[in-house]
Write a structure and sequence with these properties.
alpha+beta; 3-stranded antiparallel sheet; single chain; 4-stranded antiparallel sheet; 141 residues
Amino acid sequence: MVLCAAAAAILSAACGGGLEPQRLRLDEDICNRCRMAISEKRYAAQAVQPSGAAFFDDIGCMALWLRENRTDPSTALYVVDYRTQQWMPVHQAVFVRSQRIPSPMGYATAALADAAGARHWAREMDGRLLTWQQFRREVEP
C-alpha cells in the first residue's frame, strides 16, 4: 500500500501533477510576455511552476514566452476553452487558427476541448485545426 502511494506521487510529479491552474483576475493580472492587462478569459493561458503561475493574455504569448524562457521541468501548461471558459491542460486542447479570430495580440487562435466542435467552428471561420506542437512551431513574434 505504501509502495503504491509512493509510486503514484512520483508519477504525479513527473507529469506536472499537483500544479493546478491558478485563479485569473481579469483586468488585474498582467501578461508575462507582452505586459498587457488580461481582459478576455477566452484567449488566456498560464504556465504553472512550483514558484507560481505566469499568465498570458493570448495563447501565442505563452508559446513565445516558453521559447524565450527556461522553465521548471514540472511546469504545467493550461489554456482556456473558448466556449466554456474553463481551464484545461494544453495537450487536451484542439486549436483553431483563423484570421477571423480576434485574439488580443493577433495570434488569431482559440482553444477548444471538444474536437468535433472545433472542426465545425474551424470550417465556419475559414480556419484550420492545430495541435499544441503545431501551433508552437508556427508562432512568430
